[in-house]
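Because showing beats explaining, we think one record worth quoting, sequence and backbone structure tokens together, and here it is:
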Amino acid sequence: MCQYFTMISTIFEHSSIRTLLISACVCILLSSNTVHAETYSAQENAMLLDWVNDANTFCGGYYNDTFAPTPITGTDKELVHITGDETLFSQKDTTTLSGHVLFQRQNESVSADQAILYREANASHRLKSVELLGTVRAQEPNTMLVAKKVTYDFHTKAQFLFNVVYRMVMTGKERPLPVGKHYVLAQRETNIPGGVFTAFGNATQVSQTEPGKTDLTDATYTTCPPVDPFWIVKARDINLDRNTGRGSASHLFLKVKQVPIFYLPYISFPIDARRKTGFLWPTFGTQDGAPYLSAPFYWNMAPNYDMFITPTLFSNRGLMLADQFRYLHETGRGNINVTVLPDDRQFNTFKNDNKTPGPNDSATIQASKIRLANASTTRSAFTWHDDTRYNANWASHINFNQVSDDYFLRDFGNTIDDVSQNHLLQEGELSYQAQHWHFIGRLQAYQTLHPFNETVNLNQYRRFPQLILIGNYPDQWQGLEYFIGSEMTNFDMRKTPGSDVSQPIGQRMHLQPGLSLPLARAFGYITPRIQVALSEYTLHQTAETDTPTTINRALPIFDIASGAAFERNMTFGSYGFKQTLEPQIYYTYIPYRRQFDIPLFDTTLNTPTYDQLFNYNRFSGLDRIGDTNQVSVGVSTRLIDAYSGLEKVKLGIGEIMYFSERFVTLCENQKVCNDYPGAHTNVQRFSPITATLDYHIVSTWNVVGNAVWDPVSKHVNNSSVSLHYQQDSNRIINLGLNYVGNNGVPNIKIIPETDNTSSISIPINALKVTDFSFAWPMTNHISHVGRVSHDWASNHLQNVAYGVQYDTCCVSVRLVGNRTFLGLDPDRNYQARYSNDFYIQLSLKGLGNVGNGNPQSILNNISGYTNSQFG
């Protein structure tokens, strides 16, 4: 509303137009609430604001915003054009304009029934003030103000508006404002993220007696339709100061269906992008059936750093204090999060009930219960994220996460970064990037959690430190390319609780120089390359595994990559396409070197994919470099829409032909894992056939698939298929299937059984998961979302989620329930364990949200679904 001051003064003083009303809306929105009578009735508001009832629209009507000012011609776009039916003009006394008085400037206009211009009584006879009477209407596209009287003083710049009603369009940052009749179309989209909605309100008086300072009396604000607003906020007095970016208001009420439900005697708030210290909306909910309440406080410490302090009172645990510190500096940014809960009563009870190992507990469970008995009842969590770029070459990255005990994530949710469910990353990197050289210095560890009532989590190797240096010199003598890769890593690992064996630790040094000769033509390329992999291991703690203390390895690696690209124009019916045909042939030779004695610090077998066909090493990491003499052959084709340039179809298929048996494997026999010498995947002459497909059937349908078929076993080893339908952000269907077999896949996770004399092997890579999710409207105002994920290999649900949202022009309510698989419980014969969550959220559009948390991370698993209404 205050913006209309700017609109009035812009007509007379050539100022700007839109910011001040936005400030007033923000002020009323954050501070609002009054208690006096409305300036106009609901029907009068609707009439003055050009509201049209229409049951076919989302809001039950629309604002008939057809304002389109006549373009101003001439050289000075800032000139004000004044017209009226009758004019009584005087150069010395009062000038009166009557009947359809119009003050018009580019894209702005002010109209009134009558305008009276007063002059100075002295000899200058300069204009002193103007008074607009009758129905005063100030307009620009998507913005309107109506008042019964407006006065403006040319000398003091003081302005007064009486009996005011206003409206203005509010929209997402990335969405352009609709203009004129197009606004009715936009109003149908209010339930779409980034959609458009309109705020309107009243005030008995709006005044500005000092530059940048505005006072409102008996002001209201809502984004509901004017005929029957569901909610409205009122304030007796509102003071806005654009000089400081602050506002204040007194006696604030929030009314729902005219019933007061919230009151504040006083509030201070920001009216622009400048941040302000103060409390945010509280959140509430239940945990394990017990209620809790959070009251976040925001501290604007400085322009480049701030803090969120959130005390949370759990009725069954005590008071938790969470602190988030955010900082921004010239070279980077970061945040530090600290959470502390002293003397957790619920956790103390859990400790007392489970701290004593049972007679049938395995060694692993006994060790985990001893850890529980020693755990402190003061619960805590710490995270630190930092990304800094010092100059064009040097940068650093920190991602550090730690919790006080093995059960923190179970009790308080995963609010920190974990690599997998129970492995928390603790990493710091320093990197250097130049034209020819790339350096990384890294410290990396994992905090592994060991809850006694979940499956065993093995401790991971730590890199203390890891130094990587890579050099590359292309386009050298005769077109040769020289390159070198080097690494020095010190590996360390703590013994997994309950384990009797200490794994080897030590240093790995690796050097891999090479050269290649890229030869490229318009139709294709061929690149021969030769490398030498030199590795040295200096190991400790080797007695229990009978591992040598020193291991050396030298391997030549020779490969030739080649490919061609063909294309042609073609048509399907009336559609034109460009089709490509891209065959690839890749030859690799690596001789055999015994590597069974080398510990597996960071190495596993790569999952077969189409792209993996053209990689010289079938292992990830450096602890295994596979021997091979092979040729990979693949062909891919693409269909590209000739009109839009979009890729319609991409299809690839390929296979490896081996000329010798493979002897380098992860383990020596099948008792340890499935990748061993003599396994059919290492003796057969042809690899499984891999294929990939990405097909955009139409603009709304898309199919993506990957498959690996073994011609020896006549089985599909790995496959994934997903079908995605998306008409818009609210109409989505996803159907997916992921299958991973055990052929050639490591199976090394050993879980002791309770009798301590035998063990069972869990096929951690056996997987057969179906995933169905959707988002769909049931009515014009009710929509629902859901997801069901089931693992048929182990026959348990992975995830079930369902949510219902009621959405109107100015209010939304969302209810979401979720059930997530946590793991297998050894105490219950390895039955599945689940966590259950339930969320309720209320959003008053244009005002704020309240609820017991945010389920957005759950809903993000529905591919394509976005709903920013709840933040």
